[in-house]
Design a protein that fits this description.
Elements: E1 3-12, E2 17-25, E3 28-34, E4 43-46, E5 51-54, E6 56-61, H1 74-83, E7 86-91, H2 102-112, E8 119-122, E9 124-125, H3 131-136, E10 143-146, H4 159-168, E11 173-176, H5 180-189, H6 191-196, H7 206-210, H8 213-230, E12 234-236, H9 242-251, E13 256-260, H10 262-266, H11 272-275, H12 288-300, E14 305-306, H13 315-318, H14 335-344, H15 350-365, E15 381-391, E16 410-420, E17 423-427, E18 431-432
Length: 443
């Protein structure tokens, strides 16, 4: 029976912060302790006043397994997660092959098991003709529906098919809500700008015009009308606009949850001049008005969680001319430092960070015994030094793609230790454990 005491910490929950620590026994939290206490046996880690948070749960990653492991795999992706204080990831189905039925899901599970250093869950994806197969699937964390085209070939762009999923599928549906017809119209309207785009960084700004805010607004409106009609449980991925939030405000209830990404919180369309295709992403980077609305949505509780949409591509791919460069950017390692820096800047509280990255993801996705520092929960934890100020350095980015639009940003507040299932799996800056994470269970 293994025991580990984490002492002398500022313990952070979604409700507040208190001085104390935790006793970990056989991978789970045996006891949450407040104030001073003297452990009598077991290994002791004195955290010297650092903050102890539940490990972050990133419900939206693309670790590129199977089929595109030259960009990422579960070893490199999970190392990046650990260094970012993330202890559980939910991985998307737009891989090669697509994960669209029980057989492909089981095959992916066999490929992932024993390789991920963090805990994980796996999605299945909706197509125009796989509803009956999807109804039979068990062991997925959710069903991903792409209303608008993105990386891969998953697309449900017919309203009658979307309606059938919402009326018949009983599980959680995670939706990429951009209207495909609107996107295609944008391509026609901006065809000349797209054809002239030669690779100059500013050219990438056309992406935010092609996939305009109205494309997201139309999709969210259609989705939520159908969800209300059928009482469906839907999660809106990567909300990016004020217009979406205005629609969400009218429909928000316990069956509708919403995520926002760090890149939509911390970048605007003015940043194309600096980063070009590196920040080409679906849905695109928006203007300042939308960014301000997202922060307000967090404050008002309309937005339930932050998730990264970690979608790495090789640097040389992103350096191609706009029309040829793929959409997506890495983010699983930088999410928590960006949010912790925002805490230091007074934009939100550290308890709110826990609510957005741990407590709400576990609650909304029904992840069993994770996402909180409570007796009986798995000891998925991250230790944070809120006074540590460092640049995001390329040589310490562990994603296989090796780049980030946030490289060279100076951030204050960093994860310095990450525990998964009670095991210390990461210590600042490049010490990793070897024990594999678990596939998560659901309530």
């Amino acid at each position: 029976m293994s025991e580990l005491f984490l002492t002398n910490a500022k313990v952070v929950t979604h409700r507040g912060v208190f001085d104390g620590g935790v006793l970990i026994r056989d991978g789970k939290i045996e006891e949450v302790l407040k104030g001073d206490f003297k452990p009598v046996k077991g290994e002791v880690k004195d955290l010297k006043g650092k903050y102890l948070l539940p490990g972050a749960i990133d419900v939206h990653v693309h670790f590129r397994t199977p089929g595109q492991t030259e960009k990422e795999d579960f070893v490199t992706g999970s190392k990046a997660a650990l260094a970012g204080g993330v202890t559980t990831v939910l991985d998307m189905p737009n891989t090669k092959p697509l994960i669209v039925d029980q057989a492909s899901l089981d095959a992916k599970k066999r490929e992932v098991v024993g390789r991920s250093l963090v805990n994980y869950g796996l999605y299945v994806g909706a197509t125009l003709d796989n509803l009956e197969e999807i109804k039979k699937v068990h062991g997925a964390c959710g069903l991903k529906i792409y209303m608008g085209s993105s990386t891969g070939n998953l697309l449900v762009d017919k309203k009658e098919v979307l309606e059938k999923f919402l009326s018949e599928y009983q599980g959680l549906m995670v939706v990429h809500a951009e209207d495909e017809e609107c996107i295609e119209e944008g391509k026609i309207v901006h065809a000349d700008e797209i054809s002239r785009a030669s690779g100059t960084k500013g050219d990438a700004k056309v992406h935010s015009l092609v996939r305009a805010p109205r494309c997201a607004e139309i999709a969210v409106k259609n989705l939520l009308h159908l969800a209300k009609k059928y009482g469906a449980r839907v999660h809106i991925a990567h909300c990016s606009t004020m217009a979406e939030l205005e629609v969400i405000k009218k429909f928000k209830d316990e069956k509708v949850s919403v995520e926002v990404t760090p890149h939509h919180l911390f970048l605007t369309d003015k940043d194309y001049e600096m980063y070009g295709n590196l920040i080409k992403v679906n849905p695109p980077i928006r203007g300042l008005t939308d960014q301000v609305a997202l922060w307000q949505g967090i404050k008002e509780g309309l937005i339930d969680m932050v998730a990264t949409d970690h979608a790495p591509h090789l640097y040389e791919e992103k350096m191609r001319p706009y029309a040829e460069a793929p959409s997506g950017l890495p983010g699983v390692q930088t999410m928590m430092p960006l949010l912790l820096n925002a805490v230091n800047e007074g934009k939100l509280s550290i308890s709110k960070v826990v609510e957005l990255t741990s407590y709400n993801p576990a609650r909304c996705f029904g992840i069993k015994d994770r996402g909180a520092i409570e007796n009986g929960y798995y000891a998925d934890l991250t230790v944070v030094d809120m006074d540590l100020a460092r640049n995001v350095e390329r040589e310490f980015l562990f994603s296989k793609c090796g780049w980030s639009p946030f490289a060279d940003w100076k951030l204050k507040g960093w994860p310095v230790m990450t525990l998964v299932n009670g095991e210390i799996m990461y210590e600042w800056r490049d010490k990793f454990g070897e024990r594999a994470g678990f596939e998560v269970e659901y309530t």
